[in-house]
Specification:
With 415 residues, the chain is of the alpha+beta class. Helices cover 62% and strands 11% of the residues. The protein contains 16 helices and seven strands. The protein has a five-stranded antiparallel β-sheet with strand order 4-3-7-6-5, with helices on both faces. A two-stranded antiparallel ribbon has the order 1-2. A hairpin with a 5-residue loop joins strand 6 and strand 7. Helix 1 packs antiparallel against helix 2 and helix 10 runs antiparallel to helix 11. The protein is globular and about 75 Å long.
Length: 415
């Protein structure tokens, strides 16, 4: 069967699921027609459904059901059919490509895979604890929540690159949203740890979604990354992954080939020490770079074509991988906030808005994120600047000031 015909047939099965047809009936028909499934075909089928007008929410909600179509759906079938499901879902060349990369010490896919192996153990521990005590210890729950780091790396380093460079948007549009929903649900559960019947039910459902995502990564997402990304791109992903906290205790091993490449690349950069002349003065490249890096903010500049052009260096609460430079800014945001970013930049471009401040909590810190339109002397839009500042110092100042006033009032009342 030709590739396009196979994709059309897969779409028919997915549409049958969309219409509410019973999973087992659809699976029975599917198995009769397909002995193996190419993960690229699954992605293309979902992508064409989106392009054909199927709402993103519908495809996203069906994502877990789609996974069940291509593997055993019940826990009993999962154990019995895991090996068969992998063989049926991924062609031999894709397995070989993925295995070759996961076998390289320090390769990002090896790190992602090792993280998932530890995560599977954590899921088993959670289920055992639920079965034995009908509760989850805060320590084990905290371990599970480290999946947010794993998902953040995927969201920053893999999803956008596969979508922008290779036009494979399914994972970015669907799986990224699922990642966010899982993180949001775990965060919501963390706010109320009473662990009543409803809480346990939600937690068990979240565990299943996490486990399903492991399967999708190993059998659909990672194989497509392995087949498309070239070595230099993996080198960049390896470099950027160092900016993230250790996840599940899995340290980033040293990838010798990448280290050699990155060292050579850095040494061969043509850095001129000539001065940059501006109306306000003149600076060398070294001076300008050091100045931008010294400003106590995370600085991003996006040009008039919506392309990421610059990030200052240094520790960041909002990660900015070097791979995102020269990439469209919208691809760096999860679907749930992409439209908001488009609206803000659109208003900057049209001249109806100049500045948007947003206060938020990040990593236990009070942060001020400010988006500003950048215009030349004639008012022509040149791009958008994002400034991220830790406002903890201001919070402490005003709180201490309030406390001092309260103390003074109390003292006056006592007198």
């Amino acid at each position: 069967m030709e590739h396009n015909t196979r994709v059309e047939q897969i779409k028919i099965y997915l549409e049958r699921l969309s219409a509410g047809e019973e999973l087992e009936k659809v699976r029975t028909d599917f198995v009769k027609e397909f002995e193996e499934v190419d993960p690229a075909e699954i992605m293309q089928a979902e992508q064409e459904l989106l392009q054909g007008g199927t709402p993103l929410e519908t495809v996203q909600k069906l994502c877990d059901v789609h996974a069940a179509l291509f593997r055993g759906a019940t826990s009993e079938e999962k154990v019995a059919n895991a090996e068969k499901a992998v063989a049926a879902s991924v062609k031999e060349k894709k397995l070989a490509a993925t295995a070759a990369l996961t076998g390289i010490t320090g390769h990002p896919l090896q790190t992602f895979t090792h993280e998932n192996e530890v995560l599977e153990n954590i899921i088993r521990e959670c289920r055992n604890e639920i079965e034995e005590t009908n509760t989850i210890s805060p320590e084990l729950f905290g371990k599970l929540r480290e999946v947010a780091i794993h998902y953040a790396k995927k969201g920053d380093l893999l999803y956008p690159h596969l979508k922008v460079k290779y036009g494979i948007s399914g994972p970015s549009d669907v799986m990224w949203t699922t990642d966010d929903e899982i993180r949001d649900e775990l965060a919501a559960l963390a706010k109320d740890m009473r662990q009543n019947e409803n809480w346990i039910e939600r937690f068990v459902a979240a565990l299943q979604r996490v486990e399903d995502m492991i399967y999708k990564e190993a059998n659909i997402f990672f194989p497509n990354c392995a087949l498309n990304f070239i070595e230099e791109e993996w080198f960049g992903i390896y470099r950027d992954s160092k900016d993230y906290p250790v996840c599940f205790g899995v340290e980033n091993a040293t990838w010798e080939a990448a280290e050699k490449y990155l060292h050579t690349e850095n040494c061969s950069k043509d850095v001129r020490n000539g001065e940059i002349i501006m109306s306000g003065g003149h600076l060398t490249v070294a001076q300008l770079t050091a100045m931008l890096n010294t400003i106590p903010m995370e600085i991003t500049f996006v040009d008039e074509d919506n392309i990421n052009r610059f990030f200052n260096e240094g520790p960041k609460d909002f990660k900015r991988p070097g791979m995102a430079i020269d990439r469209e800014v919208f691809s760096c945001h999860p679907p749930k906030v992409e439209q908001q970013v488009r609206r803000i930049i659109g208003e900057f471009r049209n001249g109806t808005l100049d500045k948007v401040p947003i206060w938020m909590e990040k990593n236990g810190k009070t942060m001020l994120v400010t988006y500003m339109a950048v215009r030349d002397a004639q008012g022509t839009y040149l791009g958008t600047m994002e400034l991220v500042q830790d406002m903890g110092f201001a919070k402490e100042h005003f709180l201490s000031d309030v406390k001092a006033k309260e103390a003074a009032i109390r003292a006056g009342q006592e007198n």
